[in-house]
Amino acid sequence: MSKTEDFLSLEEEKAVVAAIVAAEKLTSGEIRVHLEGHSEETAMARCQALFHYLKMDNTQDRNGVLIYVAVEDRQLAIVGDSGIDAVTPDNFWESTRDAILSAFKKGEFSQGLINGVQTAGRALAKHFPWNDNDTNELPNAISKS
């Protein structure tokens, strides 16, 4: 089994997905988590490439958020689409990353991801509240490569 597969237990994955589902019930925004073992690129460059590959930039309101973890590299990056970037403070993604990393440093990987999902979800709900016309545009499952 790879380090990526070992990063979260099945129960921990379910808890992260449940946090995504709960956050998305309050917003039209889309949140995804992607785990990968290693990348030759920087975490940010890889996250940006995956953001496009996973079609995170195809949401109606341009309000997708991707949390990327390179497990073996011990790297983390977060990318928000132009809609959410336009309405959050300049340091928002850095503070979100710091909330994740503080739990990671304690070995609490699922809780760190849940913290990040909840932080992103609150910002999305504030600026892109859920309405009756909203549909879940992207999968909630954790993607891996």
From TrEMBL:
InterPro entries from the UniProt entry: TPM_dom
Pfam family, one: TPM_phosphatase
Domain of life: Bacteria
Domain TPM, first and last residues per copy: 4-122
Protein name as catalogued: TPM domain-containing protein
Species this chain originates from: Sediminicola luteus
